[in-house]
Design goal:
Length: about 325
């Protein structure tokens, strides 16, 4: 069977879709899997052991130059690759029109998405032949994604955690000394733990003799530098990294602390002790999964529907995060022993 998966972006959402790719390709039925993904995130898909073909698109760049000859040429090439793959089924866990339309363009006779209340855009349903409602009580986005496999008569492994260790086979191990990594940047307004709290956490961690490195992504260097400057000795700025280099850096860390941001979910998938501080999104829906994960929740939980944003219910203190960090690291050491 040939299956098309459309999860275009972003880092954390792609990590949350890996268990769906695993469920599709690890059963007794032979499945060829193609995945449509935005070009900056191609390494997260191309190297997945279950993916037969990764098809890059550039919807953000195309929107900036919709009438350019290069845009038309690239869209036609993506459509050609889809038609060449000729999927029998297209699965769209993203729930946006821009993701669902690729299933329609592929020519797949069966096109499946989530039911309307769990989709981010109702318009995406115009591209589906039918929609799936996950079993009652499933809140996490990973489990909602996994419910799509039941349309193929495959048992969904609800509760699964992403495994990103396959990425480490494609990059040189990081030579940086082991440290606690802080990830202060987030992809959404209101999702970030205050920079002053990160600086205080870094200072207290470094004072206990544990090196700290502050990791940053595009547009986040100034924020990271301010935390390093405010924390003092023992706290350094991480180098700029590609996605694969980021995976190698995180894999070498003794622990990772951050908000609801893609690199935190990546760290958890690598088995690194991870503390996620949720201040505005529902951790029951979007929290990281992994063997050594702790969540400090200052956000409301149990939000209905497809929304991630839940709003704040309180504050996450530095003391709470320090306790969670000690617990995550201690739990990892206990299991290793």
């Amino acid at each position: 069977m040939r299956v098309l998966l459309t999860r275009l972006s972003a880092l954390g959402d792609i990590v949350h879709t890996w268990p769906l790719a695993d469920a599709l390709t690890r059963g007794e039925r032979r499945v060829e899997l193609a995945w449509v993904v935005e070009e900056p995130f191609l390494p997260l898909v191309r190297f997945h052991p279950g993916v037969t073909r990764a098809i890059p698109v550039a919807t953000r760049r195309w929107r900036r130059k919709p009438f350019a000859a290069s845009t038309r040429r690239e869209i036609l090439e993506a459509r050609r690759l889809l038609r060449e793959f000729a999927p029998e089924v297209a699965l769209d866990p993203q729930g946006l029109y821009k993701s669902a339309v690729w299933g329609l363009l592929s020519g797949a006779k069966e096109r499946v998405g989530l039911t309307r209340g769990l989709r981010r855009e109702a318009l995406s349903g115009l591209c589906y032949t039918h929609a799936v409602a996950p079993p009652p009580g499933l809140r996490h986005v990973i489990d909602r994604n996994l419910s799509l496999v039941e349309s193929l008569r495959v048992a969904a492994p609800y509760g699964a955690s992403p495994d990103g260790t396959f990425l480490l086979r494609w990059v040189k191990p990081s030579q940086d000394p082991p440290a606690v990594a802080l990830l202060p940047g987030t992809g959404g307004i209101g999702k970030a733990w205050p920079s002053e709290s990160f600086a205080a956490l870094a200072r207290q961690t470094a004072n206990r003799g544990i090196p700290v490195t502050v990791v940053w992504g595009p547009g986040q260097r100034e924020l990271a530098e301010s935390i390093v400057d405010g924390a003092g000795p023992g706290v350094t700025l991480a180098p700029a990294t590609s996605l694969l280099e980021l995976a190698a850096l995180l894999a070498r860390c003794v622990a990772v602390v951050g908000g609801d941001t893609g690199p935190v979910h990546l760290a958890a998938s690598l088995g690194v002790p991870t503390v996620a501080v949720f201040v505005a999104t529902d951790p029951e829906r979007n929290g990281p999964r992994g063997p050594h994960v702790r969540v400090v929740a200052a956000a409301l939980t149990g939000v209905k529907g497809g929304r991630a944003h839940s709003g704040a219910m309180g504050e996450a203190t530095v003391a709470e995060v320090l306790d969670a960090l000690a617990g995550a690291m201690g739990n990892a050491e206990h299991r290793a022993g």
